[in-house]
Records
---
Amino acid sequence: MPKSVKVTLEPGHVKVEGPKGQLERTLPSDIAVKQVDGELIFERPSDDFRHRALHGLVRSLVANMVAGVDKGFTKQLELVGVGYRVAKQGEELVLNLGYSHPIRFKPPQGITIDVQDPTKFSVNGISIEDVGQVAANLRGLRPPEPYKGKGVKYAGEKIRRKPGKAGKGAKATA
């Protein structure tokens, strides 16, 4: 664990504090969590399938909490399409996505949205779940379509493209 992160453990509950903020989570009572020499130890009662699954889940959840309060998480999104743009007005995000009206999006508590240029923006926060959900909600406003690739997409996302209509001369004459 990083030196700047403080973890408070109670039975079935964990609280993580760091430079970026604090997160709390209720954990399954089957998995025991101990703090030893700046490390968190997760122990399961048996090698049963359910306990092994919970062991990995709890370890990942707490690791993401520690990483979030220490460094934070970011998802980069891009707009593709003529006239598609994004701007920030106060706390609200204003998206022009080819509809007859602009879409106003107010991020939830703990999430910030930074606009780099009119077609690129990022979603930032300390909870990986909230960052991913907000990014998915924004992408869902206009998902990329397979013919021209227009829409809101994650940075680096590959859009599977389909060929358009074959045209008049492609019909087989029988």
---
Amino acid sequence: MPPKKLLFIEDEAYVVDRVDAILAQFPHFEVTRACDAEKARALLEETAYDLVLTDIYLRGASGLELSFKAREKNPDVCVIIITGLDGADLAAKAVREGAFDFVIKPPGLERLSSILKMVTLVKGLAPKD
């Protein structure tokens, strides 16, 4: 079975490092990274991702826009928003509009591992033995 495709969109280096460490626990995901809105839009145009992790605020785009774009290509995509405390209201709006969940950086990033485990089971993204 081919690996599940995950797009990780983030422009803050400390968040990228922390999330990369968490993603290392999930080798069944084929991870693609984007650090700016232009690259993220292009990747979302060409590929149907199974899972998208995106910052709510990215220079040139919002996580809401990128979540919508991901769902255009794959209506079943699971979107998880990463936000600072100041973006929590917008992240909650993203969940109401179809995102799976959100985590608050930096302290909430540790919660991401639990969310990814749940998504893997609930959305059928676990590797087949």
---
Amino acid sequence: MRSATRSILKFLVPAAVFMCGMLSPVHADDFATKAEAEAMVKKGLVYLKANGKDKAYAEVSKKDGQFIDRDLYLVIYGLDGIVRAHGANAKMIGKNLIDIKDVDGKAFVRERVEMAKKKTPFWQEYKFTNPVSGKIEPKAMYCQPEDDLILCGGIYLK
């Protein structure tokens, strides 16, 4: 029995080492930065102003569109809390999330709307599901109010 176990281990250990080598390591450049989030939101604002709301909503919501980069995507809210466009979850479009809370009980959309009424760009922190990892993680969202809309792009804090 012992020699059979050794034979199996002689095969499994090198196989496991080989498989670990096949996995791609996670690097800092696999995740968006605050500067990249701000740039993406500004790019979205330029697109919105040049193309109008309907085209901007469609482009922001495209899974392979220009407003998705790794774990960074844009979301557009109305000041009423209704999602107009969502780069990571099309099922959220049209839903009023004003009363949604994160795992800590923070009404982050309501807070976001209140902050946007001041008409200045801002950063906001809360917890949300990362579409890449599938886990709830701390997130920082950069938001730019524009008329009756709020354009936001966030990073997951590592």
---
Amino acid sequence: MFTIAYRYLGKTDEAEDVTQEAFIKAFSNLKTFDGSSTFGAWLKQIVINQSIDALRKRKFDLNIDDVQLINQEDEMNWDVEDCVSLSQIQSEIEKLPVKYSLVLKLFLMEGYDHEEIAGILNISVNASRTQLCRGKIMLKNQLKKKGYEVPS
């Protein structure tokens, strides 16, 4: 669970605090666990929510002003060269503005869909799609600068 918090926060001490707070929150609210998912999935959701709350306390804006509809086909194409490692991609995602990196992490690493991301981040579904698309474009550009071929 620490790894999940660290993925969002990027700071060891803050990730440790968030992980501890998530466990405290989970055990305090154990009676609300209904078994509709695994305990691990339930706990993971708490850690993600706690991490996002910690990011919000850093006072940044998760909303975007000019929401536009994104082509579904664009959002599904994530091809990169085989020589690009997962850690290189994760490193480049960390360099993106937070509103884009959050959506990329939730979509790519956690497997959430846009409706779930919108609920977690308190943004519209279209904002989630737009931030994913823009984040993807920025990520591709960063990888191209590093010399990796990224299909359009």
